[in-house]
Design brief:
Elements lengths: L9 H11 L13 H16 L10 E8 L6 E7 L5 E6 L6 H7 L5 E4 L8 E4 H12 L1 E2 L2 E2 H10 L6 E7 L1 H14 L9 E7 L7 H9 L4 E6 L29 H11 L12 E4 L16 H12 L1 H7 L10 E5 L2 E2 L4 E7 L6 E4 L2 E2 L3 E5 L2 E5 L6 E8 L2 E2 L7 E4 L6 E6 L2 E2 L4 E7 L6 E4 L2 E2 L1 E6 L2 E5 L12 E8 L2 E2 L7 E4 L6
Parallel strand pairs: 3-8, 8-9, 9-10, 10-11, 13-21, 23-31
Antiparallel strand pairs: 1-2, 2-3, 4-5, 6-7, 12-14, 14-18, 15-16, 15-19, 17-18, 19-20, 19-21, 22-24, 24-28, 25-26, 25-29, 27-28, 29-30, 29-31
Helix pairs in contact: 1-10, 4-6
Amino acid sequence: MATDANQPTVPQVTMTLSAIAATGATPRPSGETLAEQSTRIILGINRQLADTSLATQGTWVLCWLGVSPGNANMAYLAKNTDSSNSFAVVIRGTVGSETDLLEDLDVGTVVPFNLVGMPSPVPVSKGAMKAFTEVVTMSTAGVTLAQALTTALGQAQPNPTVYVTGHSLGGCIATMVAPYLQSLTWPNGRPNFELHTFAAPTAGGEEFAAYVDSLEWQASERHYNMNDLVPQAWNNLAVAHQWYPSPPGPAADDDVKAVISTLAGLPGPNVYVQPGKVDQLNNTYDPVDPNVVKQSTQDFMGQVAFQHANSTYLGLLGAPDVQSGPVVTLVTPVGTAGAPVEIVGSGFEQGVVVDFGTVSSTRNHVLRDDVMIAWAPEGVGVVDIRVTSGLGTSPAVPRGQFAYGGPAAVVVTGISPDSGRAGDQVQVNGVYFASDSQVYFGDALAELVDYAPEQLLVTVPKATIAIGKPATVNITVLSNGYSSPASPADEFTYLEWHQT
């Protein structure tokens, strides 16, 4: 890769390649075969790799892609078409919550990791071994990752460079895949291997880390955000108890500390160690997601997700963010089968598909990149409307719900003020409040002072906060048979309370 001052750095490029791996990670809610999802992922990755505004500069091309059964793991091989004679093996990261990722690694059980040429096996977590095995054995049209790389290197100029990279779980598995690739025999001689991981938990203990570090690398670097919980696994999770101090928050409450302590206990007697040269990307609590700064479990875990995100890592590295998939922000809330439904959001383009729950709409029309119409398929009850393109599937959101036959789902969109004392008045903003609305602060019923379909005025009830209950609670509106979903927008903090 070029080293000119105007050229992107290797970490910027490899993190961008890692972020692109998340393209199309979520299967369509209405279902699609693995082949259909793979085709969609390929279209999305090709589109991202062609984007000249990214650190990858539009010079990388996709050579091979594999998705394991059940969509658990994905990897792709890309080639740089510039003069650098470089290739990249990219392994996809987490497709779920960060705590689910840590629990799925099954770190309480270790198994032997053994490659050709190793002096002796070294222990790794059972979960990491399972993911590694899926990555190196999955095939597309009968071709595995190693076979695809063999073909690519056989056509390369002498002395090629192979980057092995991944974010999150992808980075963890990269620390196993890279030594595996080093153990193989390659046409035209052994390439120069570089290992770059981002936000990666470790796969094994001291023996594993020592083995990885003993291999011949052109570079082996572990890049991480100091405020990211995941790369602290599994040797330093307890440090997160002191994270996200207030201000700007969210400081860990007792529930957060209990979650972290539970995670920290998962390895049991197994001691885990990270391989690679450390590259800490920051030394302060920066950046911060200002939308999740209250002292609550919900906000703390929301901040964990932000600190772990691909976009946060790209920002810390000074690299442009990758293209985002579609997002739904608002829909026509009620209707019947066959009715046109307006969908507002972003990332809409010709060829997108729309799912109403697990049923696909057979007809839609994109008006602009932020507005489209879809005709409701047959259905019943309350469903999430989600839009899928080559870049991914929109997440389910409270205001993206469609109710067949009504009434519309109740959603709290904001409160003012968001802190105070018992007896104060608070304005609760939202949509589809009915005259039967009841408002709860945690589990305490508030007095309703004034009602409007999108605004309620209530008197703050006495807190029922006790030992183990937080000072920050969610405000919930019960109306028309609905209970509004909890979100950071409805959090209220008691400035004074009496424990009961």
